[in-house]
Amino acid sequence: MMAVNAHIAIVICAVLLDLVLGDPRALPHPVVGIGELISALEGPLRRRIPNLRVAGVVLLIVTVGVCYALAASLIYAAYLLAPAAGFIASLYLAWVSLAARSLHEESAKVARALRNGDLPAARLALSYIVGRETAELDEPEIIRGAVETVAENTGDGVIAPLFYLVLGGPALAIAYKAVNTLDSMVGYKNERYLEFGWASARFDDLANYLPARLTGLLMVLAAPMCGLNGGGAWRILRRDGRNHSSPNSGFPEAAAAGALGVRLGGANRYFGKVVEKPTIGDPLLPLSQASYEGVVRLMYGSEALLVAAWVVLLALL
């Protein structure tokens, strides 16, 4: 019972720390170390393993394995020193695995620039959080980019790490962050990474399979509490959840689009080329500041629902 109570306390405290303080940028951050490990491994693996897919599989196994082992060893060693030290180590790793506050802060820079009537600043702020070109976007398209980013990252930046934290503790949450970082660094479909990053991209899809669908359902349930359309969220989730090149990203985007009454997807420009993506949702309302504010409420509401449901489930069991 003590272990369960400690786990509950770690999860709740980590969520609160993230909400109040965001990323502890003045302290060592595991994701920075994960990125450095990936960069250090890439060159030697490419040189020593001619088959790039095999090299990519080794990169995935070594990176995730090392990150999980280091996190688990740190927690174990800290608990050997003192229960309080173990709790603090666990809490810190849990805290840095979550990103709701950071996602809100970075996307809010876009909304703030638009409120100030500064389109160039809004385009620049958006360029830091999306992969598409932003230099020629008008205000509705800028808002679409911000809404899509918050919706998608509610899945892989908020709900997924929280899901793995709840399921297996801080070490598993850090292992998930390693998977996510691998995908963001080598999971590209370009000449350099198509083969080498194949395993990382596919494993990221697998790791996000359940969390993405859970995120969609949580958004449906959270929508009425956030002053949004729960019925619309459910309808669009079912209809358009698979209208995306990613096997996972469409689910939170569809639920958000339905809750907000807006249409997402459509044309995006990448490296000078226009890519037509499937549309998600119906344009019942124009994309506006209210759309952005609504998707942020959905993010926080979904996170709160997951924590509450987990605590209630443990209490019932």
TrEMBL record:
Pathway: Cofactor biosynthesis; adenosylcobalamin biosynthesis. It holds the Pfam family CobD_Cbib. Keywords: Cell membrane, Cobalamin biosynthesis, Membrane, Transmembrane, Transmembrane helix. It is found in: Cell membrane. The keyword Acyltransferase does not apply. It is a multi-pass membrane protein. It comes from the Bacteria. The chain crosses the membrane at residues 52-71, 78-98, 158-179, 298-316. Converts cobyric acid to cobinamide by the addition of aminopropanol on the F carboxylic group. Belongs to the CobD/CbiB family. This is Cobalamin biosynthesis protein CobD.
